[in-house]
């Protein structure tokens, strides 16, 4: 069993809720727990928000791509990609409290939040070319699904 979907939308703040809902609706066929669904929605929200705020500096002329896959055994893979400014130092960006935004407006916890809700987080980026965030979540299929 493998299912997948891919959508692309404008890098606008109001589309973050759309992306979160689209990912949740896609994985709903796996009958996830409320906790699993909330974790997926939160991870997607953080990744999409980072793309919009940091990848495009809130310039809505860019696009964000969201890909979701359901793999054998209940593994969910979510990819959020932008073609924005990229991240010069991914390791530094993954440190808690680090932000490229104004510190009075940003907590610098986006990657930390994603890591805490997902089983695996990978970040690939090149300055001037964009960023790809890949999140993996293993759903509990103990109910026989």
Helix content: 25-40%
Strand order of the largest sheet: 1-2-3-5-4
The poorly predicted ranges are none
Q: Please, what is the CATH homologous superfamily?
A: Histidine kinase-like ATPase, C-terminal domain
Largest sheet report: 5 strands, antiparallel
The first-to-last residue Cα distance is 12 Å
Number of strands: 5
- CATH C-level class is Alpha Beta
Q: What characteristic shape results from the CA principal axes?
A: globular
Which structural class matches the secondary elements?
alpha+beta
Per the CATH scheme, the topology name is Heat Shock Protein 90
- Provide the number of structural domains: 1
* Number of continuous helical runs: 4
Organism: Hominibacterium faecale
GO biological process, one term: negative regulation of sporulation resulting in formation of a cellular spore
InterPro entries: Anti-sigma-factor_SerPK, Anti-sigma_F, HATPase_C_sf, HATPase_dom
Protein name: Anti-sigma F factor
